[in-house]
């Protein structure tokens, strides 16, 4: 059951990505690379008044890296950078196999990627966009 949910979510976000496009108003851009698999993405965020008001990604990569980026953006758009960092920490805990049920709920659809915790070879694909997000947010905080 968990695995078919994973398959459906993955397919849905690859066939109909909501956030895979350029973002003309982006205030922040950050590249992420996973050479192991060849995933190469660019994350674009529009951060205004301490809210991630919009976001998108471009680039190429496998189904897992692309779906993970799309799901992540769906989750963090409308949140503050601190909330987004909190969700990134939860996503890492999930992939590390040490997340509680309550925490898993906070991840909403991203919880479908829990299956990756049992697929060590794909961990870098799933975490690429989240690592890129964290780096972008760290850099944006240091600007002030
Ligand atoms: Zn990949």
Give the SSE layout.
Layout: H1 2-15, E1 28-34, E2 39-48, E3 51-60, H2 63-76, H3 81-95, H4 101-106, H5 123-142
Antiparallel strand pairs: 1-2, 2-3
The chain binds zinc ion.
What does this 3D model show about the protein?
With 144 residues, the protein is an alpha+beta fold. It has one domain: Alpha-Beta Complex (Sufe protein. Chain: A), CATH 3.90.1010. Helix content is 48%, strand content 19%. The protein is built from 5 helices and 3 strands. The chain has helices at 2-15, 63-76, 81-95, 101-106, 123-142; strands at residues 28-34, 39-48, 51-60. It has a 3-stranded antiparallel beta sheet, covered by helices on one side. Strand 1 (28-34) and strand 2 (39-48) form a beta hairpin. The longest helix has 20 residues, at 123-142. The model has no long low-confidence stretch (mean pLDDT 95). Bound molecules: zinc ion. Residues 34, 37, 39, 61-62, 64-65, 125 line the site of zinc ion.
Strand content: 15-25%
What is the element string, with H for helices and E for strands? HEEEHHHH
From the alpha-carbon coordinates, what is the Rg to the nearest angstrom?
14 Å
Helix content: 40-55%
In round numbers, the mean pLDDT is 95
Write down the overall geometry.
globular
Which structural class should the secondary elements be placed in?
A: alpha+beta
Which small-molecule species are bound to the chains here? zinc ion
CATH 2nd-level architecture: Alpha-Beta Complex
The helix tally amounts to 5
First-residue to last-residue Cα separation: 46 Å
CATH class: Alpha Beta
Q: What is the fold-level CATH name, i.e. the topology? A: Sufe protein. Chain: A
How many β strands by DSSP? Answer: 3
Q: What is the spatial order of strands in the main beta sheet?
A: 1-2-3
What kind of sheet is the major sheet?
3 strands, antiparallel
Tally of domains: 1
Low-confidence stretches: none
């Amino acid at each position: 059951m968990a695995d078919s949910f994973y398959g459906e979510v993955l397919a849905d976000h690859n066939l109909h990505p909501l956030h895979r496009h350029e973002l003309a108003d982006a205030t922040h851009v950050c590249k992420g690379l996973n050479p192991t698999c060849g995933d190469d993405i660019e994350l674009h965020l529009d951060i205004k008044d301490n809210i991630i008001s919009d976001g998108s990604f471009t680039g190429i990569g496998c189904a897992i890296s692309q779906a993970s980026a799309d799901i992540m953006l769906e989750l963090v758009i409308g949140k503050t950078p601190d909330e987004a960092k909190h969700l990134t920490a939860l996503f890492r805990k999930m992939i590390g196999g040490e997340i509680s049920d309550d925490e898993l709920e906070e991840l909403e659809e991203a919880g479908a990627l829990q299956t990756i915790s049992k697929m060590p070879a794909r961990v870098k694909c799933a975490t690429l966009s989240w690592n890129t997000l964290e780096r972008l947010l760290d850099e944006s905080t240091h600007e002030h």
